[in-house]
Design brief:
The protein is an alpha+beta fold. The protein folds into four domains: 95 residues, 2-Layer Sandwich (Nucleotidyltransferase, domain 5), CATH 3.30.420; 86 residues; 110 residues; 81 residues, 3-Layer(aba) Sandwich (Hypothetical Protein Ychn, Chain: A). It contains 15 helices and 26 strands. Strands 4, 5, 6, 7, 8 and 13 form a six-stranded antiparallel beta sheet that branches. Strands 16-17-18-19-21-20 form a six-stranded mixed beta sheet, with helices on one face. A hairpin with a 5-residue loop joins strand 16 and strand 17. Helix 9 packs parallel to helix 10. 31% of the residues are buried.
Length: 490
Amino acid sequence: MKKIIMNYRSTEKRTAIVDNNKLVEVFVEGVDHESIVGNIYKGRVEKVVPGMQAAFVSIGLGKNGFLPKEQLASYKFLPSEQKSKMSISSLIHEGQEIIVQVSKDVFGEKGPRLTTLIELPGRYVVYLPNDRHIAISKKMNDEQRKYWRNVGESLCSENEGVIFRTACIGEQPEVVQREVVYLQRKWAAIKSEKAQRKAPQLLFDNASLEERIIRDITQGEEAEIIVDDSEVYQLLKERLGIYNLNLITLTHYFGKENVFSKYEIDQEMERLIRPYVWLKNGASLMIEQTEALTVIDVNTGKFTGKYNVQETIIKTNELAAVEIARQLRLRNIGGMVLIDFINMEQEQDRDNIKSILIEALKADRGYTRVYGFTQLGLLEMTRKKERKSLLEQLTVTCPTCNELGRVYSSEQVGFQIERALLEYKGMDHEAIWIEAPETAIEKLTTSGIIDKLEMELGFKIFITGSNVLIQSFEIRHIGTEKDVLSRISN
């Protein structure tokens, strides 16, 4: 059974998906790192660049969004013979106000990627208000696909479309129709706001992480949701009641220990920022992430096989293919990926490894494409990059090794301190002394987290700076306030 573990008690919101007792996906949302994918804005075209066949649009976030010609609805529905001749300058102009949706988050110096082909997601369908397209989940059989296509044609006007999701299987058409009507009304409300608001302006805030879990992750299968926050528990209870999801069990976690520590998620996340991954047979993966691409190297390590070298190579590559699919999803690695499997002489062996990888990637909700082996023996694939990878979210380049490595960011160390302190709730002592990097202390004090924790926990928190600690903290003493102050002064 699938477990969805939600750690919402602290400032940083974290959710882990565990399937068959194995961690398969992690979501992290800090104060400064909330995803804007799916948000709809009323933007203003700041610049049109014919040489790039793209425009830069201000949506009020500091960095202008990038809007390529292919993502304009007015371009998509042109006749094929006109598309090659049509310049973006003929479709939009500087100063024009336009409704856009974010399709990819901000990465480094790059602004968000935008589209005018709007998608409004529901549990059963994705509504396409300006895209004449009806699509059906590939998991449906031919009879089901034909049935839902007819339903879609009856629900949509000439200029709108819909994508029927896997959750439609076995569902009554009236239920799906009610959701389509609801999404159509939501789009009408968004458009009416466009006329009233001045650009740039947020028109629609994409569903929160907890709502996306109900909508996207719990799709027709038995699952238990474990949440440690009472407000989120009540919200989920209401949402589950709306959808009447009898297969979902909701549990409110009251334990003092952090829920991620309780279910050993924290230990697993520690491993997810390291480049090495050990396979169960003693072989290993080396995962190196760069801004341009990710390279994964497969090594036999301690595994020598039982019979011959070829058997060792094939068995290791098979295990590696399955684990690579899991790691891409866990670490949220996107963009180009090159995999250096151990060299295989037979073409059929390479085809087999490619097939195993493709099959393992089917569990990934992110769009993936496997191309095949290059002349150098590297397997090429891509995974759609919408949000920052886990490594980018949790770490920064190391300041002490000329940026050759990565360490936890100051913000992450602050979140770790907050979670550690929450586990001392209800203790009998008056005060606690923590030593931490100066940059982490600054994050904690400017955000007001320490003041909030002192009120909530009922004891005094003293934090002193250290130039030795780079990516960690240390609890130095717990006792009376007088005792702690004495130790700090000494």
